[in-house]
Amino acid sequence: MLRPSMRFWLHSRLRSLSRFLIGYLLRSQPLTRAAAVALPGAAIGVIALAACAVRAAPEAATVAADPAQARLFAHAPRNGSDFSNTDGPLPRASFLKWQWERLTHGLPPKPANGYRFPVDHPDVDWIKANRSTATMTWIGHATALLQIDGINILTDPMFSQRASPFTFLGPKRKVPPGLALDQLPHIDAVLISHSHYDHLDAPSVTALNRQPGGPPRFLVPLGVKQWLADQ
Description:
The chain is of the alpha/beta class and about 230 residues long. It is built from eight helices and eight strands, in the order αβαααββααββββαβα. The chain has helices at about 5-25, 40-50, 60-65, 65-70, 95-105, 125-130, 200-210, 225-230; strands at about 35-40, 80, 80-85, 135-140, 145-150, 150-155, 190, 215-220. The strands form two sheets. Strands 1-8-7-6-5-4 form a six-stranded mixed sheet, with helices on both faces. A two-stranded antiparallel ribbon has the order 2-3. Helix 1 crosses helix 2 (about 40-50). It is globular, with a radius of gyration of 19 Å.
């Protein structure tokens, strides 16, 4: 749950933006059917912060008319069907160099406790019943549950054991999630920042799309909308 000081900070700085994003993207259309809205990458992080701030309200025009705010939603440079890094292309063989250094230097180093971190488990019954208190529950990595005025938003859902297209190979989870999929309240919207396996997990997305009461609305970067439609 957000501390009062943090809620006040978010409230005072992100009021108008949250009203636009949540009011327009979530409440302007029904949330009882499967749908995906493609967004520029820069907008994804802003929505996550704005979602924590205040209740949604239908005042979208105040943000849309601001040129400074409009620049936040500019698309990344595009080269044909692909996107380009804003700071230029990566050096040649940078991926191989990264993997070699990881293997030869034992990176990343293990923490002294061997990943045996204590895990706090929230009050599941309270979270499912909550309709009025603004909360943010960290589930693990980039997965968080945001609750604002009865709307439940889940960021980068990743509940699998491995961040990989395979169940037997790839980076394995070190710490279990703070909430399991079946402990979540009904999710109204899912916010996905990018398509790395530790942020866009196919089994988690599929499970959410089949949740009782109807699927959530997915807010995704450009290119991911088609991927969701193909699943």
